[in-house]
Amino acid sequence: MAKNRALQAAARTQQDEFYTQTGDIERELGYYWEHFYGKKILCNCDDPFESKFFEYFATRFHLPLRLAKLTATCYAGSPIAQQQISLFEEDTPAPMRTPYCATLTELRDFNGDGRTDMNDAIWAMKNIPGALRKLKGDGDFRSPECVELLEDADVVVTNPPFSLLREYIALLMRYNKKFVIVGNINAVTYKDIFPLFMQNRMWFGYGFMGGNARFSIPSAEDPSKYKDYNHETGLVKFRNCCWFTNLEIKKRREKIFLYRRYDPAKYPKYDNYDAIEVSRVDDIPCDYDGVMGVPITFLQRYNPEQFEIVAFRKGSDGKDLVYTYNDVGGGGQNYVPIRPNPNTAAA
Ligand SMILES: C[S@@+](CC[C@H](N)C(=O)[O-])C[C@H]1O[C@@H](n2cnc3c(N)ncnc32)[C@H](O)[C@@H]1O
To answer: Strand 213-216 to strand 19-20: parallel, antiparallel, or no bridges (unpaired)?
Structure first.
């Protein structure tokens, strides 16, 4: 691969180098085991020697998940690629390293140390023909060889580059893939992502503990540019990260408990949409079957059996939902029109 292509890739990834922590991965993925059992898992933004996603699946490969296959591909631009171990004789210094693909189809105590763990995965990659191979291109998840791997996979699990989230999700949709991925909460407001929530093709997973996602960053990076960098842990904290999925989870079937009663004096009508505004999700009235504008945080608790999303977060004039009530204005860009699901409203 041409050296300047690798450098371009490195420049592009600079804002994307955040590595998910084992605790966060374990906390979320534990809810999805039934969907992983016996399946082909793909981590397509992951250096297998660095990624805790790869480690999570490798260490559970045989028991309890009995995976059929685990594949990881890393990206040429990643500054951490192959820092752990030199795999190919002609390795060059980062970021010009060779992007590669790791594929495990079985995992057992290969190294004979009495247990099956990540060391056996590393042993397999170094010793089993085909378990580790160079990619032809730069490892971009959109490249033909990576798309081929995507087509073969049952479930995709990773933290994709923040800057390419839209494209990443579009690709998953195009290939009709099941997924659990880390993303930015604000993505739900995007014109191309919101409809996926509305059509029940994607929803929120459980989320990071207390809403705090912590990531490690490459050691060469200057941490002072991050407001929430902890010098003791070496981790950067983000409050706007979440998990997106299209796998069925119990959370999605939990109903929001409604206890308020509709009172026209308390729920103003929008000026530009035939709906009332409910400014807190907990204030959704239990006896109102019309359309209501609710804060977009509602999507975190959205149960499609209980409600349906009626439209993108705009009024009939294409502008944000707004109201004027007793000369006071309200509403705004972060309100979404919903209504009780007419098919299950009585339930
Ligand atoms: C947010 S980091 C997450 C890394 C790892 N999945 C984890 O969670 O620890 C995103 C990763 O995607 C890689 N990346 C950036 N652009 C990419 C692309 N076009 N295709 C594949 N991977 C890419 C970056 O190098 C980076 O390592």
So the answer is: antiparallel
